[in-house]
Model the fold of this input.
Amino acid sequence: MLFAVFSAFANAEDPAPPCAPGPFARTLGRDGKTLGKGILLSPREAIRPSNLAWELPVAAASVALVEWGDQPAEDRIHNAAREADFSRATDIAIGAQLGAGAVAWLVGCKADNHHEANAAFTALAAAGYAQVLNLGIKEVFRRQYPYTPGSTGDFFARSRAGSFTSGHATTSFAFAAAIAHEYPHKPLVKWGSYLVAAGLSAARYPARKHYPSDILVGATVGYLTGTYIADHANPNPNP
Done:
C-alpha cells in the first residue's frame, strides 16, 4: 500500500549538527538512504495488522473521495478572485514555513545549539525528500488538475505529472511531522506545526489547485515521511 511506504526505517545515532559541508552531506545522504530503505521494505510493512488499522480507513476515505466526493466538491468553486487569493496565500505560507526552518537551522548552528540545528535540518530534509516522492507519485498517476478546462479528475490523463498528490500538503506535513517528533513535549510547537500544515493543505482546495483526495493522500505521505526520517535521524529527541 502507498500509505505504508515508510513503515520500516531503522534508527541511528544522532550525528554532529549539519553546519559544515561534511556533516551536511553525510546527514543528507543518510536521510536519502533511509527514504530508499523505507520504500524497499514497504510491501512487507503494508500488511502488518498495526498498519492496516490506519491504512484501510485512509485508503477507504481516499477512494470514496475520488469516486464520489472530488468532482462535486470541485463544482462548488466558482470564484476566480478567491482562487487566486488562496493560491497566493498557500505559496506564501509554504515559503514562510520552510524559511522559518532555514532560519532556525542557521541560528542553531551559529549558537552551537545541536538540537535546534539538527531538528531544523531534519524538518527541511524531510520536506525536500517528501517533495521528491510527491513528484514521483504525480508522474505515475498523471491526474488532471481541477483548474484544467473540462477536467473530470481522471487519472492517467496527462502526458506528464499531474494533480495527485498535493505537493504543498506533502511538503508541509513532512516538515510539521519532523518538528513535532523533535519537540514532543512542547505542545505549542508540536500542534502549532500541524495546525499550519493542516490549514495550508486545506487551502489548496479553494485555491482550485487540487481535489480533496489529492490533499488527503499528500498529507498522509508527508506525515509518514517526516515522522520516519525524524525517527531515524534522532531516536531520542529532546523535550
